[in-house]
Design goal:
Length: about 180
């Protein structure tokens, strides 16, 4: 992230690669995709206001100058197609479920309901939130009368992908860490 003293005479310290990694993380994208998005936003915001563009450029390190150029949409479209999450096939899902006791589902979503004592539910949710932050991918959670139901799906493709399997494994690890629980 770019940070600095706030003095208009000094440019803040920071690296473009750090900014792009931070922009890419929530969307599960690549730094190249983040650059495309940042260039699109900055070029649109500054398109009709040259003084705004000059003011922003003067406040940022020289390395950030690339943000002020129009992105080339053709390479982005082709890389985006290859970077799209790969849905699991009809044959892969049952095999994945056999390796993940307690999980049920199909190619669209997987779910697991964990019964836990009330005093352990928040601890479990905190552990799962940490794991989700690390993966940049979140489950749907629903508290039930005696625990929590987790549902994993890659919403951008409305299907189960390898990232969902990673998240399911992390949820299983969190369940074991807080005291096991039982599948219902």
């Amino acid at each position: 992230m770019v940070s600095g003293s706030g003095d208009r005479g000094e440019k803040p310290a920071g690296r473009l690669s750090d900014l792009l990694a931070e922009v890419a993380k929530p969307a599960g994208g690549t730094p190249e995709q983040a650059l495309f998005l940042a260039q699109t936003v900055v070029s649109r915001v500054t398109a009709d206001d040259i003084s705004l563009m000059a003011d922003l450029r003067s406040c940022l390190p020289d390395e950030f100058g690339t943000l002020f150029t129009e992105p080339d949409p053709l390479p982005e479209r082709s890389s985006r197609a290859t970077d799209a999450p790969r849905p699991l096939s009809d044959a892969e899902v049952p095999a994945a479920l056999r390796q993940r006791p307690g999980w049920t589902g199909d190619t669209h979503e997987l779910s697991r309901t964990v019964a836990l004592p009330v005093d352990r539910v928040q601890l479990l949710l905190t552990q799962v939130e940490r794991a989700a932050d690390e993966l940049g991918h979140r489950p749907l959670t629903q508290q039930t009368g005696d625990g929590v139901r987790f549902t994993v799906q890659t919403r951008s493709v409305q299907a189960v992908t390898p990232l969902d399997l990673d998240l399911a494994d992390r949820i299983d690890d969190a369940v074991m860490a807080v005291g096991g629980g039982s599948a219902t």
